[in-house]
C-alpha cells in the first residue's frame, strides 16, 4: 500500500521546508484546534485568557529551540537519539514504548480534530452534513498520502491558512477592542470553569509531535552548529507570529461574542468573527480557511507519527511498517470524527489530550539535552533552569484540571 521509503519521505519534507522549519511548526498549530480553542476562550471569558496564549507561545519557542539546537549539534533527530544515546536495554525499551504511546496517541487525537475541522469548513460552505465530509476528507487525505506528490496542493492549503490568519489579525483591529481589557488579560488567573480551555490553548500551541517534526526538518534545512542562530531566529519569528494570530482570535471573539453577551453554540457561529472584514461572505471565507487548515494538518499528523516511530525503532527500509502507522492514525481520526455528535467538543478534546501528554514528552527532551553526547546542543545550567520552570508551569496547568 504505502510503499515509499523513509528517504523519499525526508527528501519530500526537505523540499517543503524552504520557508523555514519554524514556519512549518507554526502552520501546523494554526489549524482548526487553534481557531476553535481561541474562539471559545474569547467567547467565554473575554480577554482574560490572553496570558495563556503568551505563556504557551513562549513555551513553544523555548522547547522548539532546544530540539533544533540538539539536532544541529548532534546531526541526529530527537526520536532516533532517544534510542541511540541510551545504553541500557531496559531504559531504551521503556523510552521507546512511552514515546510511541505519547506520540501516536497525540497524533491520533489531533488527527480527529483536524478532520473534523476540515469537514466543518465544508459544511459551512455547502450545508452538507459534517459527518459526510469527514469521510470524504479522510479519503482525500489517504489518496494524497498514497500519491506523495501533493506539494503544490499543500502549498495552496498553507497559503489559505495564512490568509485566514491575516484575516483574524485585521478583524482584531477593525472591531476596536477595549485596550484596558486586553492589558488585563495578561494577568494570570483561572476564571471559573476555564481550566479545560486553558489546557486546550496550551495543547494547540505546544504540540508534542511538532517537537519531533522540527527536530527532523532542521537537519534537512541546515548543516550544523553554525546554523543554530539562524534556526533560533526562524523559530522565534514563526512561532511568535503564530501566537500573535492566536491572540487576535481571542480578542476578536471577545468583542464579537463576550462583549455582546452571545455564545458560540455551533460551528456556524465561528464564522461571525470575520463579519467586520468580509460582511456576508464571512461564512464562505471562514469555511474555506477552516477546510484548508484541517486538510493540511490531516496530512501532516500521520506523517509526523510515522517519522517519529521510525526514528524510535530504527526503521529505515521497512516501508510497510512505516506506512501502517500513518494509515492507523488517519483511520482513527476519520472514525472518531465521523462518530462525533459534538464536533466543537471533539476538537477541544484533541487539544486537551496533547496538553496532558506534553509533560511526558518534555521529560524525554530534558533527558537528551543533558547527555554529554549532545555537545554544544547540551543545556547549560540556566537553560535547565528555564526548562524546569517551563515544565512545572505545564504540569501545574495540567494538575489544575484534576484538582
Description of the structure:
The structure is a single chain. 79% of the residues lie in helices and 0% in strands. It has a single domain (6-402), classed as Amino acid/polyamine transporter I (Up-down Bundle), CATH 1.20.1740.10. The protein is mainly α and 403 residues long. It contains 18 helices and no strands. α10 (195-205) crosses α18 (381-402) and α11 (208-221) crosses α15 (282-313). The longest helix is centred in the N-terminal third of the chain and has 38 residues, at 89-126. The radius of gyration is 20 Å and the shape is globular. Mean pLDDT is 80; it is low at 1-18. The protein has helices at 6-16, 21-29, 32-45, 50-74, 78-84, 89-126, 130-147, 151-174, 179-184, 195-205, 208-221, 228-258, 267-270, 275-278, 282-313, 319-339, 343-369, 381-402.
Topology of this protein?
Elements: H1 6-16, H2 21-29, H3 32-45, H4 50-74, H5 78-84, H6 89-126, H7 130-147, H8 151-174, H9 179-184, H10 195-205, H11 208-221, H12 228-258, H13 267-270, H14 275-278, H15 282-313, H16 319-339, H17 343-369, H18 381-402
Estimate the mean pLDDT confidence: 80
Give the count of structural domains. 1
Q: Any idea of the CATH class?
A: Mainly Alpha
Number of strands: 0
Largest sheet: none
Which structural class is indicated by helix and strand composition? mainly alpha
Quick recap:
By secondary structure, the chain is mainly α.
Question: Keyphrases for this structure?
Answer:
single chain, 403 residues, mainly alpha, Amino acid/polyamine transporter I, 18 helices, globular, disordered N terminus
